[in-house]
Amino acid sequence: MNTFEYISHKIRELRNEFNSGAGLSQEALGKEIGVNANTISRWETGSYKPSVDDLEKLSRFFGVSILKFFPNEQESNSESIKSLLRAASDLDPQDIDELTSYANFRKARKLHLDAKNGKVGRKAKKRSND
């Protein structure tokens, strides 16, 4: 399953599981995030590819990380990440949530651009060369 097929599946899954499994119509979701129901339908079938901004709207509406729309990535243990975590450790919870959302948005934007350009992630390249 490629990235955009995964995104399509995830949008449909979140919409159908919304409201404790009662679901949400494409029309209702479109109204909530400011797009037509046809757009939601086309995202779910993969005929349209949502932008990273669209994914941000969806993530905020559903209350999930934007990274939920991308195949799982392993966390990095780099020093710069550890330094960022130390710097954020004394922030208020609301500031940490906003910082997390921003970092996830930036990562999602890169993953979205890579998928749009047909690039395979570094980890996937290594596996394909094994």
- How many individual domains? 1
Mean pLDDT: 85
Structural class: mainly alpha
Major sheet: none
Please bin the fraction of helical residues.
55-70%
CATH class: Mainly Alpha
In N-to-C order, the SSE pattern is HHHHHHH
Distance between the termini: 20 Å
In short:
This protein is mostly helical and 130 residues long. The chain has 7 helices and no strands.
Structure in words:
The chain has one domain: 434 Repressor (Amino-terminal Domain). The chain is mostly helical and 130 residues long. 65% of the residues lie in helices and 0% in strands.
Secondary structure elements and their pairing?
Blueprint: H1 3-17, H2 26-33, H3 37-45, H4 52-62, H5 79-88, H6 93-116, H7 122-129
Helix pairs in contact: 1-3, 2-3
Search tags:
single chain; 130 residues; mainly alpha; 434 Repressor (Amino-terminal Domain); 7 helices; 0% strand; globular; disordered C terminus
